[in-house]
Amino acid sequence: MTLGAAPSRVGELERRHLGGTFAELCRIPSPSGHERRCGDRVRAELAALGVDVEEDGTGPIVGSDCGNLLARVPASGGSPERAAGEAGGRSVLLCAHLDTVPLQAPVEPVIVEGGWENANDGILGADNKAAVAVLLAVARHVRREGSEVDLELLFTVGEETSLAGARAFDVSRLTGDFAYVFDHASPIGEVIVSSPTHFRVQADFIGSAAHAGIRPEEGRSAILSASRAVASMRLGRLDEASTANVGTIEGGTAMNVVPERCSLVAEVRSLEDDRAEALVAEIVDRVHEAANMPDCDCDVEVIVERTFSGYRLGATTPAVRVAEDALRACGYTPTRVSSGGASDANALLAQGLTTVNLANGTERNHEPGERVSVAALEGMLDVALALLEQVAALPAGAL
Q1: Domains in the chain: how many in total?
Q2: In a domain, 1, yes or no
Q3: N or C: fewer beta carbons within 10 Å in the chain?
Q4: Catalytic residue among 14, 35, 99, 370
């Protein structure tokens, strides 16, 4: 919801440049693990502005051909070596991720009824290239117009694979007082103040193979065992704060062979940490019960991974107040929401850096038909620039 028209902080040329950069980024395939081309494009854009970019060694750790990219744009008259906290030394981090979910079709961005869409039947990549384009536009604006705060820009890899890049990033490299991520597919104005804890559960059922037509009684079906387990689980939305899902199941070798092996992967999310742990324990119990049924009698190996931790931010958190003031300054009504999804904010917060995730105005992310309106893309840039203004205006001792 908007409060009313507010003057834009950028001119027509900057808006056109933003749209062109966004379309160019979307055309570059960068599914998780293959972010190099997109990362090189980001690095080239920043180099043209005279901004140095550092790449960390995260790539091989998380299975990507690219590491996380960190750039620093010092405040006007400052230097990259100036420590945050010195006179005029406020610092803020803006973060976006380079990767997308797998492509269903080549991306050819077009504007349809005021919004960017893929002309082909597949994702657009606005998650999160809308934010990547905005961060590059912020760097261009700051290099031309100046800023009263030191700006850090972090472009992560592997966000779509359990926040892998941000989880592996060393936040001690940062000087920012706090950080902002633009990675929630909902109307601009929403401030994500809570996000769930997430567990991944993998169960590998091991039975015994046999000819399905001649000696079926000698076999022990891993697929039967896994299907019994799934059928006994409580899945979907379990309460206002919790969800569970079985995302993949695979096994067997041929139609006429009693399947010896079958694996499933499930997830649990909850805004309540204890609730998430209890639901995981329930799924593990169902797996073992199914494996031990007399007509199955399979062995089973279960791996439980806590992929990321949830968080709750209070309304008085300075970073939240700054975000809400920036939104109001741009004509948006701030709305605090809880999300069932996660973002790099979860990973950065877990490492001690206060981080706020803000809605970016994209629609139907991860789906064919994904889109982002031209107004939302430009509005996101206005909000990002307003964040810098609000951070600069913070009184001493406000953090």
Answers
A1: 2
A2: no
A3: N
A4: 99
